[in-house]
Design goal:
five-stranded parallel β-sheet, single chain, globular, 350 residues, alpha/beta, 15 helices
């Protein structure tokens, strides 16, 4: 019995040491690749969201849930991550349904240009922050490149054990948690870098979307239908990289065939009022705060007409929750504006 107790204590202490070591070595995504916290941040905002955005940076940079709440009383959350591939968007939807059932799902179609896993780095930014479930397992298996191993996701220490020489004070400071970055998934930037000249688009040998992309778009559509969710397809208001007319036509045909609403924001510049000389922070790849609020204000007018969407600002308990979100939003806005004034650039999201 004494040997058994000693062995058990040893295993427990060994497990604690491995856990702490793993927590220390795994990147914290505070000063670099900050969008790596977005997947994990969803769970603090889960529940009672009527609209879900899924996709890549074209959703988390270009739409503001705070603006949708302030103008329309619409509760929304964005589950966007850098270079989120369409199968990852599908699993984000499946994962969300473990916590809530939105009335509307908005999917950004730009990621359909990719029909194969792209890189481990982007996979990590999307997948590491997801909570463990069969959904995460399936997402990892669908996303891994040939060089990756499933066990490195189960035990990240296998992947990051050599990070010793990269450790900084933030690795110790954020050993058990990180600072909040997003606003229900929206990543704020207040600075401006206008579109001066857009490069000429390079002709492609083949504009056809890959079969796997259509397979997962069908999965998203069928999942929404099964749960009584309205699906809206969008091309987000980002003018670079180029979105080819041939891609646009394929989505239009799919939407018409399946009786879905498809909105290409690039065709509604006059209505949204987006000005790419003032409303982007990186020459047209992403919108800044003023651009995201314009896009959200215009899109909110469409969202409020969808089945089940109501103005919920009269709900006092819900309004109290969202007031805290508004306060954080305004606090970050002031912080970034101060950085911009003092240094001429935004050096940190916070």
């Amino acid at each position: 019995m004494k040997r058994f107790i000693r062995a058990a204590v040893f295993l427990i202490l060994f497990g604690i040491c491995i856990f702490l070591l793993q927590r220390l070595l795994v990147p914290k995504y505070i000063e670099e690749n900050e969008e790596g916290v977005l997947s994990a941040e969803y769970y603090d905002n889960a529940g009672d969201n009527d609209v879900l955005f899924i996709g890549d940076c074209e959703v988390y940079s270009n739409f503001s849930p705070i603006k949708l709440w302030e103008d329309y009383g619409i509760t929304s959350v964005i589950r966007g991550t850098p270079q989120q591939l369409i199968w990852q968007s599908y699993y984000m939807l499946e994962d969300t349904l473990r916590y809530e059932t939105p009335k509307v799902v908005v999917f950004s179609v730009f990621s359909m240009k990719y029909d194969k896993p792209q890189s481990e780095a982007y996979n990590r930014l999307t997948l590491d922050g997801m909570r463990w479930s069969s959904v995460k397992v399936d997402a990892i298996k669908a996303s891994m490149t040939k060089e990756e191993s499933f066990m490195s996701y189960v035990f990240p220490i296998l992947r990051f054990h050599s990070r010793w020489n990269e450790l900084s004070s933030e690795d110790f400071r954020y050993l058990f948690g990180t600072e909040q970055l997003s606003h229900n998934g929206y990543v704020m930037r207040v600075d401006t870098k206008p579109v001066d000249v857009l490069p000429e688009p390079i002709p492609l040998a083949d504009y056809t979307y890959g079969d796997v992309c259509w397979e997962y778009l069908d999965k998203i559509r069928d999942c929404c239908k099964e749960h009584g969710i309205t699906l809206i397809l969008i091309k987000s208001p980002s003018c670079y990289p180029h979105f080819y007319d041939e891609w646009d036509q394929q989505i239009e045909e799919y939407a018409e065939k399946n009786q879905l609403q498809y909105i290409n924001f690039l065709k509604h510049g006059d209505e949204t009022g987006i000005d790419y000389t003032t409303d982007t922070y990186d020459s047209g790849l992403h919108l800044n705060l003023s651009g995201a609020e314009k896009a959200s204000a215009w899109f909110g007018d469409i969202l409020r007409e969808q089945p089940g969407i109501t103005d919920r600002r009269n709900d006092s308990s819900l309004s109290a929750v969202w007031q805290k979100k508004i306060d954080f939003y305004e606090e970050m806005k002031k912080s970034q504006e101060k950085q911009l004034e003092e240094t001429g650039k935004v050096t940190s999201y916070r």
